[in-house]
Amino acid sequence: MDLKDYRQEIDAIDDQLVDLFHRRMEVAAEIAAYKKEKGLPVLDAGREREKIKDLTGKMPPELRNYTSVLYSSLFELSRSYQNRQLLRYTELYNRIADAIEHTTPLFPQDATVAICGVEGAFAQIACEKLFPRPFLLYINSFEGVFSAIESGLCQYGVVPLENSTAGSVKKIYDLMISHRFSIVRSARLKVDHNLLAKPGTRLEDVKEIFSHEQAIGQCAQFLKTLGPEVKLTVCENTAMAAKLVAQSERRDVAAICSRNCMELYGLKCLRSAIQDSGNNYTRFICISKNLEIYPGADRTSIMLATAHKPGALYKLLARFYALGINITKLESRPIPDRDFEFMFYFDLETSIYSQEFVQIICELSASCEEFTYLGSYSEVV
To answer: Most buried residue among 218, 280, 303, 344 by CB atoms closer than 10 A?
Structure first.
């Protein structure tokens, strides 16, 4: 036999498998109807374990792991199909549906918004991109922004989530685990970093540079050209760094920040656009204490923890794949006080009006021990 003959044999087997898979899913739907009538849960973990044990025992040793993976995936697909037939609405979905119905159709034009930093921060620019007439409340830390939302001190907060060059803002993901909030919109902001100093300071005079750690990371190549003797000092915010330089008596310090800070703090630009990539974007999220879902929401953010055992994340991802839901972001963060256990953050690309959205939300909120719905929203580019 040659390769063509082997492929023809494989094709014939696949035809049989497709017919059998179709029949199996039909039976799964009949089982779903029976479970609905009797009030039984979709998942029968004990039967699945026994079934996999029986099936793998029928295979030669070298194929047992493959068989286990195959049937674990098949069971996941069957459960997903059964859930589609049953579609039991959960308390969470009812809360989402209520938010969709009662949220005003127009995103607020003016609001009290908390941001981290001082005037001139990139968060301020992002905020003004989201709200035409915001009243800004400047907070000293990211945690302070979340606390301001929870306490009702302000209606919204705007914080950076990730950068196209330097990656995720880890502190924000950690705060997401410990605070209650909803994401109501996001914005993508083109970020150009500039090296600002007091008038009269030359580039060769600079001995110390202040900025946020993300900005420092985004300008790594430029900073290397200054030599190892230049000290890099991390600040809470790029605009705070500019303010520190402006208030300092020293003439050998500079700040990496937005060009807006030049006029605000009476500084001059030593070098412009010093970021490593010309295509440098930071994504900001707008958070609220209340669940608000505005028309056109096509992005959903969730957090959940999986069982601490092999294949748990794989089985979870299979659910999204089976429903055709695109995962645009997956971030893991350690859960405080729980060794080697992680919380997973997902950004999902799916309309809130789709059947797939309804199913995945109902499935996950009913089956995951730890599941947090962070919100559904649209992104301003």
So the answer is: 218
Question: What is the pTM for the complete model shown?
Answer: 0.84
As a whole number of angstroms, the distance between CA 372 and CA 165 comes to 28
The rounded distance, in Å, linking the Cα atoms of 43 and 45 is 6
Q: Is 169:144 a contact under the CB 8 Å cutoff?
A: no
CB 120 within 8 A of CB 239: yes
pLDDT digits (tens, 9 = 90+) for 315-367: 888 889 888 999 999 999 888 777 767 889 999 999 999 999 999 998 888 87
E-assigned strands of 192-280? 194-197, 208-211, 231-234, 253-257, 268-271
Cβ atoms within 10 Å, residue 342: 15
DSSP annotation of 203: G
Catalytic site includes residue 284: yes
Q: What are the strands, taking DSSP E only, across 126-169?
A: 133-139, 156-163, 167-168
Report d(CA 331, CA 354) in Å as an integer.
24
Query: Choosing from 122, 284, 320, 346, which is the catalytic residue?
Result: 284
Whole-angstrom Cα Rg for the chain: 26
The DSSP bridge pattern shows strands 167-168 and 231-234 to be unpaired
CB 267 within 8 A of CB 261: yes
Q: Which of 122, 131, 238, 282 is catalytic?
A: 282
For residue 113, pLDDT beyond 80? yes
pLDDT in tens, 203-231: 999 999 999 999 999 999 999 999 999 99
Closest CA to 54 of 40, 42, 64, 41: 64
